[in-house]
Amino acid sequence: MTTPSAALADGHYDQYVEWKSWDNLFSFSDVENRYFRIETAGISVADADLLEIGFGAGHFLAWARHQGARVSGTELQPALAEAAEAAGIRLLAPAIETCADAFAGAFDTIVSFDVFEHFPLSDLGPRLDACHTMLRPGGHLLLRFPNGQSPIGLTQQHGDPTHLVPLSLAKLRPLLMTHGWEIVAYRGQAIVGGGSLLHKAVRSVRQLLRRIIEATYQFIYCVDHPLDAVVVLVLRKRGSPNPHKTP
Fold it and tell me: Which CDD domains match (predicted)?
């Protein structure tokens, strides 16, 4: 397994926070508020026990806590982990497979935005298994990652030296079969934004053109996967939620 010390020792994460221009830690903007609401529709957040794997600047955790979630997180970089502790967020080990049994059935929802592509291929199975262990029956796992089955996803995948593995539902499916996850959704990430009426009109036209190109591509090549640069995979742990769960 990849340990945090090994992942940091290669130097790729030096100045990572500055490179990402992460500031205003553990806060969220109006655009992020709208985005997270759309992306988590149908998933427990309010009054939920929620874990974010690789929380980075903490924008999602701040938003989820504002909705009433009891939040926990993992983060590889010490400075961000220290900021999370200062914000009162419970931390779990970044190598979640090492603590999964201790948190078995502890969470209603686990999310991971743009993180699983940073893991070596050998770590994907154990960490998906760990998520399954830590979720309650009926709980959801939401993963967002660059689309490894789309030529448009190459820009996102190769735009970060810490990205190790191109991902797609097709690549993850054999690993998901271990526990028989229910696939709830596999789609392009939500696109939101403000701006003037002109900006909104341009954004709508772009979206329409993208869907036309995607439909044409799928027809010509006889495929059904999305062409979006970034995709979201929502999984559900089979079973009925316990209405009498305790936090």
Answer: AdoMet_MTases (cd02440)
